[in-house]
C-alpha cells in the first residue's frame, strides 16, 4: 500500500509538472488563435510581456491547474479500462496486448468523455486569458462590453457570470469543436505512443523503460497537438466569443468566417507553440500513467501471489 501511495503521488506530481510546462505556451496559443494584432509567436511574447509583465503568461492558470489532474486521470482511466474491456471481449484476457483497432476505439471513447470535463475548464481558461488587464485596475462596471477591459474577477466569478448570462449552454460553448478536436486528437495521441513504444522497446522486455515512455509520450504529444491545431483554433475562437461581442453562430459559421476573413493560414495559428509544449507535457503524463500502472500491478501480484 505504501508503494502504491508513493507512486500515485508521483503520478500527480508528473501531471502537475506537465501542466506547469504547458502553461508557458498556453496563453500564447490562446492569444495567437483567438486574439488580434499578433503577427507571430515572438511578437505575441513581447506584446504580452510589455503590457502585462511575466504575470500575464500565467493568466487563467488557477482553475485548470486545480482540475487538470482529475481531468487527465479520467481520460487515462477511461482509455485504460476501455482497452481492457475490449481485450477481454476479444481474447478473454483483459491483460492481453490490445490490437491497434482496440487502441483506436479506446482513444475515441476517451476523447468523447474528455469533452464533458474539458469544455468548461477550457472556456474559463480562455475567457480569463483573453482579458488584457486585471479587473481591479480597470475601475469599470462588470457590464462593460468594451474590448480590452476585464469582465471576470477570477474563475468562480467567470463561471457564475457565464451561467447567469448564457446558462448551461454557455459553459459548454465550443463543445462541438472540442469534440471534433479531441476524438481524432486522442487517436493521434495514444496510437503513435503505442507504436513508438513498440519500436524503441528492446526485444525481450515485458514493458518499456522510463526513457522509452518519456520519448514516445513526447513524440505522441507533439503529433497530437500539432494535428489538432485547426480545430483548436476554432474551439478557442468560439469560447473567446461572447465576452464582449457575439460574432459566431456555431462551429461551421466560425470556420467560414475565419477562412473568409483570414484565409487558410488562420487554422494553423499557434501550431508551433502547440507542438513544442505538447512534447514535455505529454512525456510527463505518460510517464506518470505507466509508472502508476506498474505499481498497481505489482501490488496486486504481492497481495494475491
Automatic annotation (TrEMBL):
Keywords: Membrane, Mitochondrion, Mitochondrion inner membrane, Repeat, Transmembrane, Transmembrane helix, Transport. One of its GO terms (cellular component) is mitochondrial inner membrane. Pfam families: Mito_carr (PF00153). It is found in: Mitochondrion inner membrane. Coiled coil: none annotated. InterPro entries: MCP_dom_sf, MCP_transmembrane, Mitochondrial_Carrier. One of its GO terms (molecular function) is transmembrane transporter activity. It is a multi-pass membrane protein. Belongs to the mitochondrial carrier (TC 2.A.29) family. PANTHER family: MITOCHONDRIAL BASIC AMINO ACIDS TRANSPORTER-RELATED, SOLUTE CARRIER FAMILY 25 MEMBER 48. This is Solute carrier family 25 member 48. It comes from Melopsittacus undulatus.
Amino acid at each position: 500500500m505504501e508503494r502504491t501511495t508513493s507512486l500515485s503521488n508521483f503520478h500527480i506530481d508528473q501531471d502537475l509538472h506537465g501542466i506547469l510546462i504547458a502553461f508557458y505556451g498556453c496563453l500564447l496559443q490562446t492569444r495567437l488563435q483567438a486574439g488580434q494584432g499578433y503577427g507571430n509567436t515572438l511578437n505575441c511574447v513581447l506584446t504580452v510581456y510589455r503590457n502585462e509583465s511575466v504575470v500575464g503568461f500565467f493568466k487563467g492558470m488557477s482553475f485548470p491547474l486545480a482540475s487538470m489532474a482529475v481531468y487527465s486521470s479520467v481520460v487515462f482511466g477511461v482509455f485504460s479500462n476501455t482497452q481492457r474491456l475490449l481485450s477481454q471481449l476479444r481474447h478473454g484476457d483483459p491483460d492481453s496486448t490490445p490490437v491497434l483497432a482496440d487502441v483506436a476505439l479506446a482513444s475515441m471513447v476517451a476523447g468523447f468523455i474528455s469533452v464533458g470535463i474539458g469544455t468548461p475548464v477550457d472556456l474559463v481558461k480562455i475567457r480569463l486569458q483573453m482579458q488584457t488587464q486585471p479587473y481591479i485596475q480597470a475601475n469599470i462596471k462588470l457590464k462593460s462590453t468594451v474590448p480590452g477591459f476585464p469582465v471576470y474577477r477570477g474563475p468562480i466569478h467567470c463561471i457564475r457570470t457565464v451561467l447567469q448570462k448564457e446558462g448551461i449552454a454557455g459553459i459548454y460553448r465550443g463543445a462541438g469543436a472540442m469534440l471534433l478536436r479531441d476524438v481524432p486528437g486522442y487517436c493521434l495521441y495514444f496510437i503513435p505512443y503505442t507504436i513508438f513504444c513498440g519500436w524503441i522497446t528492446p526485444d525481450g522486455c515485458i514493458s518499456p523503460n522510463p526513457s522509452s515512455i518519456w520519448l514516445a509520450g513526447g513524440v505522441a504529444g507533439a503529433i497530437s497537438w500539432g494535428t489538432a491545431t485547426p480545430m483548436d483554433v476554432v474551439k478557442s475562437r468560439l469560447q473567446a466569443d461572447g465576452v464582449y461581442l457575439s460574432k459566431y453562430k456555431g462551429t461551421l459559421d466560425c470556420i467560414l468566417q475565419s477562412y473568409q476573413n483570414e484565409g487558410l493560414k488562420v487554422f494553423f495559428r499557434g501550431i508551433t507553440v502547440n507542438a513544442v509544449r505538447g512534447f514535455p507535457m505529454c512525456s510527463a503524463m505518460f510517464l506518470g500513467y505507466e509508472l502508476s500502472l506498474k505499481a498497481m500491478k505489482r501490488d496486486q501480484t504481492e497481495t494475491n501471489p
